[in-house]
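Input/output pair, single chain:
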Amino acid sequence: MILQQIRIREAGDSDLNDVLCVERLAFGRDEEAELVRELLRDPSAKPILSLLAFKDDLPVGHILFTKAHLEHCHNPAIEIAILAPLAIVPDAQKRGIGGKLIKTGLELLSKSGVGLVFVLGHPEYYPKHGFQPAGCLGFETPYSIPQENAIAWMVQALRPEIIGSVFGKVICANTLNKPEYWRE
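Output:
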């Protein structure tokens, strides 16, 4: 099985070219790569978790989690993150690499104390990895999204007692705080 050949590790500064290459290949354009470059530089996005997946020492996948917070949340112990983006190069797609990156990222975030992870993504893909619609649970997007795309705004609790105990508008890193990034 291909997953046995996949190695995942945290990406460092020296991996920037590999990260950007994966982003460009996965999306077929430069916008996501430039977004990632800016997020990696953005102090308001830190702490950041950036993971690279390798197959036979070639980078084939990347996932980025950045810091966020809930507006008016009076519980500073609730740490949250946003997953954006997840990128797999075309030749490696549909082989479980994205799922493995998500799982590894969520495990590392949980160990570091993060309680909630949000994503604006494909509503048929992310629920397979434990995400559920966030709007009906009281979590608003940083910018309004069309009602027909509301199920694309999702959350996963990394600690069971959090859902229902907090709610509000998610405030993301400055780089992501632009309406064009909140369309699905």
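Residues 97-111 form the longest helix (15 residues). The chain has a mean pLDDT of 93.
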